[in-house]
Amino acid sequence: MVLAVFMTNLDLWIVNVALPAMGASFSRPGHPATLGDLSWVLNAYAITLAALLVVIGRLGDRIGKRPVFLAGVVMFTLASIGCALAPTLWVLVLARVMQAIGAAAQLPTSLALLLALVPAERRTQATRGWAAVGGLAAAAGPVLGGLLVQVDWRWVFVVNLPIGVLTLAAGLVALPKQVAREAGRLPDPWGAVLITAAAAALCGALVQAPTWGWSSTRTFALLAVALVTAVWFGWRSARHHTPLLELHLLRVPRFGVAGAGTFIFGSAFAIVLLSNVLWCQDVWRWSALRTGLALVPGPALVPIVAVATARAARRFGHGPLVAAGGVLYAAGLLWRTVLVSATPDYLRDLLPSIVLTGSGVGLALGTLVAAGVQSLPDTRATTGSALVNSLRQISSTVGVSLLVTILGTRVDAGSVNHFRLAWGLGTGLSLLTAGVGVLLTRSAVQPVPAGASAHRRFG
């Protein structure tokens, strides 16, 4: 399970570092690959993952978490080979969609398998540790990505092959074969189509608006599609027997609050992750390797902070840690907003910022996941973790799209004020996350009843 989470999170970081190299590879004379085009390498993955996490997570409840988890490992590994061999940008985007299908099978089932194997009193620690594995991948990702890009950006996908094979072999031997399975229908597949269309249309409008113009008919058309499909999705979710989004779960106080915090913080995180890579490579003109080395301290702090504060989480609860994480993340972004310069100054500009933001992620991200999942009954562990991770992925697409909208199609030394605006937006989102921490502190745990009425709702 740790290997699978490591692989999917490693992919996130090394793809971000490799994005400028992909743009150079796929550009042709007179037809450059724009930042908006390249953003689909990230967004197509995130949108597909968000749409399918609940469906495939529920499939894990129904036919068994172990086979769904292992099938996801196989799909992700094969799709990584497809990414490495992609002859064009849009073939790469399609292969990224296939990767996302594999990740959608791995993520919720891995957390549900983990929670089933640890005592109740250790689940907060286990959930935060599960999320902290992403921090280990984040620490390795920038450097590994930079090294691989020095050879060829395609190697950032080839690296998934040995990890995937090892994960599959270990899973076949070590994972328990659970007999208990749920009956009933799978979640509404049309709901997955609608939420995909809504997210894709919104992202398309945001990333193309700098080129098309905000008053363009095409921009308005995409925004209209996003609105209509989002409303339609909500309508189906409220009336379908087995909706993709079980709206009543959002009324569980801590689950709804933690979900909102996950979305807000995830948007800020996506803005920072991509903006730091673009800043180092396109403004400071650093290589991918130097960029990767420069970014290591931030993500390296994530698992350290998560482990170091495990006892505080048990003693004080989720809320104070989330609030502190939001404040630290905002402080890191505010530092960059005030002190940033187009002249490289790593010790004064970037390093303090990524230390603060890395500490904030270590406090907030895994804690938000734990607060959301643990507010639900055990029978909804897979679906709950799928919903939380769906929110993370949708927030990632929103963050990336907002950054592209702010930066426009070209990033260079003249983009300093645009970066400041993006980091200012991230600061505001981080402070909202701190507010979510305050709400979590005040709210009481009110899990969904596990009796007959809950069974009727859950199908």
What would you say this structure looks like, in words?
This protein is mainly alpha-helical. The protein has two domains: about 1-185 and about 240-459, Up-down Bundle (Growth Hormone, Chain: A); about 190-240. It is built from 18 helices and no strands. The protein is globular and about 55 Å long. Mean pLDDT is about 85; it is low at about 445-459.
Helices and strands in order:
Blueprint: H1 2-26, H2 35-63, H3 65-85, H4 89-116, H5 123-151, H6 155-158, H7 160-174, H8 189-212, H9 217-239, H10 253-283, H11 288-295, H12 297-308, H13 310-316, H14 318-339, H15 346-373, H16 381-407, H17 416-442, H18 452-458
Morphology call: globular
Global Rg: 21 Å
User: Number of helical segments?
Assistant: 18
* Full CATH superfamily name of the largest domain: MFS general substrate transporter like domains
Structural class assignment: mainly alpha
Q: Give the CATH architecture of the largest domain.
A: Up-down Bundle
List the helices and strands in order: HHHHHHHHHHHHHHHHHH
Beta strand count: 0
Helix content: over 70%
CATH class of the largest domain: Mainly Alpha
> What is the overall pLDDT average?
85
Q: And the CATH topology of the largest domain?
A: Growth Hormone, Chain: A
Descriptive keywords:
2 domains, disordered C terminus, 459 residues, 18 helices, mainly alpha, Growth Hormone, Chain: A, globular
Summarize the structure.
With 459 residues, the protein is mostly helical.
